[in-house]
């Protein structure tokens, strides 16, 4: 299968690979997927007092599209407020990266990782966990 | 100068040897007769060429030319061999024994037989990919008519103990079918020394053309017969109707002849490159060979690079190196290779594997390039892998509760 240029670019030059201190109170960590499924994504956000995401990092075990999806997600997260970040939809990622149908689940994983990171941040800061609909694409 | 891309997927198919193409060419434009045309020189030439090819093919596997049935490839040979026996020997029994790591052409044929009332036992393999002979013998019952075990596996290259298997089959009066696709032409295969009753193989895995293969069917001790799966003009002694693919068959014959002549030399050269590739790649941390290294084809290596995913890994170099991965995260199913899983590999290791299939035209230079490209990509992806980070921190990944999928 041929990958889109944008996927290749993110794969070759991934943005924001790395690790934030997951014990820090202003860091939210989302770890989604499973090794058995061939994809594990860890996405982290760092939030300032005003609720703005000042930094985002990822590490991903998975195919090129999963790596590209998480790389793109971190780019989009930086500079957004947590509330804005909640609005990132996996189909935006699909569109931006030109993912073919068999790769949609890679983008779903990225969306799940964002939400899971936000929830981790919320819980750490005494906020209520947001319930999301189960994504069914997996 | 190194020419890219490099082809290391010779288990999927091999390039044709130019000598094979040369032998085939006249049979498209000049000698285009139908081998079944008895009344004119075009037919006679074609028949003569087919007869000669039949001898070349038979010789490679130590068979009599009359025991070679030309087919369209190994898939057809697997179908004809297994279904053909099931139908022909219906009065003797309906039980077949095979293994879980067989090619789909065998497994799906067996499933078809189960649907039509047959009984199939699927033997598990041991962690090295070989079947347990005691288990095989224990699975035989009075209704068993056939054992279908491949000679060598297409994903991990392990070579089954065919002589021992045939001895067990003989002892119990059961026939032995083997899918010889990956072994014939690469390692010595002799139907008599090995005690094989039926064997499917194909030209395009041994530097011949695609779309042509053969089913070996034993004619003496015992005389074996299969029920035809295709009705028609009664070609190939009634076992396989259809106008013979003369150019393909000529190429197949030539490919067999070359394999026979060059096998020793090829094996020496190729296994040296394979061993070098393997040694160098195993210098990476947490890299493992899948399947028996002792009982293995000389040109195959299947290696898992833990904590990197196969498809992501391939993407790092697949513009330049043609390889395949045991990870199947691409397709509708997220299941990794059933062969690797059958070895007892966790899904994570199965998802992390690459299959190297070297061949006659592989060069040292290509191997050096490959070692470098793969090592670099593995290291780069591990830097990006959360699993690698956890592993390095000493976290036992099996203790983590992964999100349900
Ligand atoms: C073990 C085995 N059996 C059967 C086949 C099918 O061969 P063919 O492509 O000639 O139908 C293959 C090739 O993929 C194979 O590796
Ligand atoms: S992670 Fe499964 S195909 Fe992308």
Please outline the helices and strands.
The complex is a heterodimer of chains A (138) and B (405).
Chain A: H1 5-12, E1 27-34, E2 39-47, E3 53-61, H2 64-77, H3 82-85, H4 90-97, H5 104-124
Helix pairs in contact in A: 1-2, 2-5, 4-5
Chain B: E1 6-7, H1 18-24, H2 26-29, H3 41-60, E2 68-71, H4 74-88, E3 95-99, H5 104-115, E4 119-123, H6 133-139, E5 144-148, H7 162-171, E6 175-179, H8 191-194, E7 198-202, E8 213-217, H9 246-281, E9 287-289, E10 300-305, H10 310-315, E11 321-322, E12 324-325, H11 338-342, H12 347-350, E13 353-357, H13 364-383, H14 386-392
Parallel strand pairs in B: 1-11, 3-4, 3-5, 5-6, 6-7
Antiparallel strand pairs in B: 2-8, 7-8, 9-10, 10-13, 12-13
The complex binds pyridoxal-5'-phosphate and FE2/S2 (inorganic) cluster.
FE2/S2 (inorganic) cluster binds next to helix 2 and helix 5 of chain A.
Summarize this structure briefly.
By secondary structure, chain A is α+β, with helices and mostly antiparallel strands. Helix content of chain A is 40%, strand content 19%.
User: What strand line-up does the widest sheet of chain A have?
Assistant: 1-2-3
Number of helices of chain A: 5
User: Number of helix segments of chain B?
Assistant: 14
Number of strand elements of chain B = 13
Which small-molecule ligands are present, each listed once? pyridoxal-5'-phosphate, FE2/S2 (inorganic) cluster
Q: How would you sum up the major sheet of chain A?
A: 3 strands, antiparallel
Structural class of chain A: alpha+beta
Average residue-wise pLDDT of chain A:
92
Distance between the termini of chain B: 48 Å
| SSE ordering of chain A | HEEEHHHH
